[in-house]
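Recap from last week: sequence in, structure out.
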Amino acid sequence: MPLSNWIKETAQLLAQNSAAARRRARTRPRRLAATRFVRSSDREIRGYSESLEDRVLPASLVWVGDLSQQFDGYSPGDSNWDTNSLPQSGDALSFPNISTSRSLSNDSTSGNAYSLDFTSSGYTVTGNTIALTATGIDLQSSAASTVLNTPLTFGNNTTINISAGTTTLAGDLSGTDGLTKTGAGELLISGSANFTGPTQISAGTLNLTGTLTSDSPLEITNTATFTGTGNWSGPVSVSGTVAPGNGTGTLTTGPLTLTPSSTLQLQIAGNSAGQFDCVNSSGAVSLDGTLTIAVDPG
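Predicted structure tokens:
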């Protein structure tokens, strides 16, 4: 082959490869939702509409609820979210102030990972499993309670911040990571749990009425309280307060350590079961704190 032809063909090949590389570099995740109706008599396409989103995930979506109470509620050009798109795994979902309580259904793909930010409480979320991202759940209001009936999977050491009020986790809790609870509010776990990562309650209250069957270690710091009538099978270390029961009742734990800064608060309203507080530990118990007893004079 003449040298001039070889140089020409090499230049063309390099140009083609460069163009292909530029096309690949411009490619970004897209979401497409379309509705098409075809009239076969004249081959004319009518009623065509589509919503095309071209953005890099994840995104922040704010609930507007224009169509329904479903996460995946959608019609051409409109959705229940301010972006007119549907949630994708990794997105941050925000729920704004509401004047009345509202029940929402997560009908998006089971196991999608979201963070949940509630600027108002009063929401109840049901439906498919949500895999919480590291930023987890942020509840910023004390107006009313927030209830999550959906199963939750903890990942990347999830944080749940409850500034005030009560957030209830009523669905199954799973995952290889644990959680950190912050904020002065109350976290009520009423469902079953088998996540295995460590759990730290760094502020506020953990109210346990459900059952954790794994060996996840629980730490109650010196600014936090552990209460309820549930069962935490893993080891429990308390530097804050343990107050069994909701009223009076029995709180069941694995091995229990009460550090010198801890307080064990017991109530006695009678001598029958259920009329006095009790901590029932299935393992070794180390008591090195303060005991306070409140007796009902009736």
